[in-house]
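Quick one, T. Sequence first:
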Amino acid sequence: MDLLRLITCGNVDDGKSTLIGRLLYDTKSIFEDQWDAVERASAQRGDAAANLALLTDGLRAEREQGITIDVAYRYFATPRRKFIMADCPGHFEFTRNMVTGASSAQLALLLIDVRHGMTPQTCRHAFLTTLLRIKHLVICVNKMDLVNFEQAAFDRVREQFMEYAARLDSADIQFIPISALHGDNIVEKSPRMPWYAGAPLLYTLETVYVRNDANHIDARFPIQTVLRSPSASSPGYIGYAGQVASGLFRPGEEVMHPASGRTARIKSIHGPGGSVAEAHHPMSVVMELEPPLDLGRGAMLARPNNLPATAREFEAMLCWLSEQPYDPARRYVLRHTTQETGCRLQAVRYKLDIGTLHRNQDQSPLAMNDLARVTIHTDDLVSYDSYKKNRQTGGILLVDEAANTTVATGMIL
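Structure tokens:
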């Protein structure tokens, strides 16, 4: 079975945690002790029935306040597919958590309360899903039971969203009217909405095609470590170990180290089970080159006729994660694939208001939850692709060198 990574997002109280709880409950993915804990917590809160949202709200503060603060990951499987779900918080203060949860997602479930329609936070999350290159967006128009399952209410929300989506770069948008609390159109089609001709949510998640979403064209192999054999039977053996970021590699093909321009031919490729005829993402392999190249951790191999950009300066869209604002006097380290190098922000081009998509020329230091276009200068050469082209080689992290804490995540433009 293949694996689908998805997130739930949307405005606070639009039912994200309840939807995940419903999916877990209806697919029988909850253990008895988990359900007992939910029933106890629901009784302590004074709820009339078991609150499905508590299945994902694991922090004590979340249970007490009835909100989602941190990203909660839940796992379940059906006969067709395995799933990893990230329940992202809906409050504006936790935008950084939403960015973190969405960074590896292939599909986003954006919930909208049918009574309220589009809200500023709905717009923010819709924009962030497209900025983070999530290609599949399923709009779950929730709480249909509170409007008597009327089609007109659903159509009104769909028209509102499509008007906003005209400004976004989203390839695949689907709409499903649901009631997460009562299970309508979650696992089975609801008889209370006969006007809806589409599939229920679970079937949509099981059948959405994501295998073509990865980059199969641009061959990129960031080296994680270099293996040298101490054995007398294989003197001089050098193997370059890592995970294929994108594209395809085969023995006999020529590869190049973009930063130096040196080339070699792939002598062999070995996986955990032995030699392999080809390597693709996300395989972890060891390549033997002929002749060996003087490379180490952080170097990248690519095809000579299809090279990434290589530079010490580039532009990126940063989301500032730290409670401490950006300080030019502090040292920051840029992490890109397996490479680490010192860096500094040459300029902040603008800050982006993700509610209005307005570009703000405010020159104040980057603060928590700020989204800004910046120019980054690095100490060493970096081989990269744009995030729009390749999520694996276009994503970056900024780390405070002294505190060793991640302060920002970004997408190379």
